[in-house]
Amino acid sequence: MKPSSSRFPDNAAAALANPRLRAALDTLPGGLVAQRRAAVAAVPEFEALREAARAIRDATLDDLASHLEAFETKAISMGSKVHWASDASEACRIVLDICRAARARLVVKGKSMVSEEIGLNAHLEAEGLEVVESDLGEYIIQKRGETPSHIIAPAIHLTEADVAADFRAYHTHLPADRRLDTPQSLVAEARNVLRQKFLAADVGITGANFLVAETGSSIIVTNEGNGDLAQTLPRVHIVVATIDKVVPTLTEAMTLLRVLARSATGQDMTAYTTLATGPRRPGDLDGPEQSHIVLIDNGRSEMLASDMRDALRCIRCGACMNHCPVYNAIGGHAYGWVYPGPIGAVLTPSLLGIVETSHLPNASTFCGSCETVCPVKIPLVSLMRTWRERAKQQRLETWPARALSKLWISTATRPALYHLLARVAVAIGGALGRRKGRFSSLPFARGWLAHRELPAPQGRTFQQLWRETERGVPR
Amino acid sequence: MSRDAILTRVRAAGAMTPKRATPPLAAPPSLTTSGDAAIARFRTMAAAKGITIIDAPARDAVPQAIASILSSTEIETRQIRLNDPAMTKFDWRASSLSIELGAAEPQDVMALSTARAAVAETGTLLLASGAENPATLALLPETHAIVIDAMNIVGTFEDALTILRTHYGESLPRAVNLISGASRTGDIGGRIVHGAHGPHRLIVIIVANEIRAPQPAP
Predict the structure, then answer these.
(1) What ipTM goes with this model?
(2) Across the interface, do A271 and B31 touch by the CB < 8 Å criterion?
(3) Nearest 5°: CA angle at B71, between B66 and B76?
């Protein structure tokens, strides 16, 4: 998909001014936070599980080439065809070639962030294929021509009323006077429409949460069962996955699954966790005749060799965005590409380059909530800081940011000047604010003061108070 | 070609740092159970996921158990799709039920599978695809019933993997489905709705076994 990360400030301002988006964001990320908290509290060893998950991902990435080769060998021996793609265009071409060779017309998809990243739908549609997203959230946004605003809840930015209006507009073959006033009625309608697509599809495309080297399997995790139908009913199944998805053994995959759903939705397991291994076997009555796995690099090997390697540990649970105050305020679309939130602020510059994405690492208060909930302990704050430093080295900051940081440096590195300015500011602020004891309006801070007040200085600086007391304690 | 180019880049990146080892892994003690405690935990965890649990004293009592649950719910069918010879051999007509053999068809209302194992840790059923238990049975019909022998209810996923490796060695069946409740979605306004694409309703029939797995000496 075409990135718009360079327009982040405008995107964010528009998001903040959108009352419909506010209404949608008011409930869901917070709900996921509460559910995660309950799920984590139910497992006293959760911290040890996070540490084990981190160690599994680190050890796998350290020796990724061996694990990829082992996966390939085993997958082939189980009857899958393994394809390798260096970049997005090669991956799209491989998938298109498989579809063409199968004389496919209709493709049904499970949710896959890498397919968004490589622009797979647009590529297949341009070649005349019908591509239908089957994850309910993805189906809704595909119909709207939008992109996911959250990696596990792609339509988190929409309300029930939005979806009802969309379904009336799109499903014109259904009676106009039908009732669509409950989530149940909307889900039932989507189920019926999509069931027909599942039954008619020639090719099913899914992503993979993990690829297991030990067994040559892909693992997908869903609640709807859409990925299962997509990899069971059509005669051809294609897995698209980036090379960092491999895990050595089933046992390691299970440890990662223990932290994945708990971190994502607060479930201990999602409704469906499925290991798919090769095509239908002799005697099987269902399942695809062909099984293809497309291993996609698209920037991961460069990340592996860079100081961004830790970000490749990500297992795409979405906890960092659910807990991010910036994501909760602006939603996912403002980030301008596939991966929003703190992990997006690290991944997007890694994959697209910092020049077009230099705003993203600034979309953080560095509160650190993302790090404390990340199930694989990615140091998101320090990785974002690294991108900020790199943006500064390349002189990509805005001129006010550059001017202010120069001003700050020139005073903060001169203690005498700094103390003088602080004394003057505190004295003036104390005098002006003496009557009310607080400010409710100040120049340049109208937005900040719209929802809070600033306590007025009490007349002396911290440095002065420190000297007058016994290390902060009154003598 | 891309394969070799990718592997060369990945190998070069890997060579830049020392290799770290994966620590020994074991299920957390708070999630670990065995024997009767595992069966009890499985019941609790599965029920918490909205799974209906019924008991049958033996496998040949499963048709009657299903007939009784059908008469006490709004499920309007007397026909069940299944293909496991271990289950088809029983007298279904005596319970006023009819069975259809094969994989699931779009019009099927209810299907029955036999689980390979069940995991107490999370209340999860482990189904292995094959001619006897086609994967579509668990996906297409609105109601899915799963038979599990009590002796195959294990404590943790590690235990379930042991069963899987014992049965299948190094070659897994095409699909191993870990099922933890009916199909659901929260994609519309964040409210949970069941029956998104797969079954609306999941029923588990626990078959008590006279023959228990040999217990290790204390």
Answers:
(1) 0.95
(2) no
(3) 90
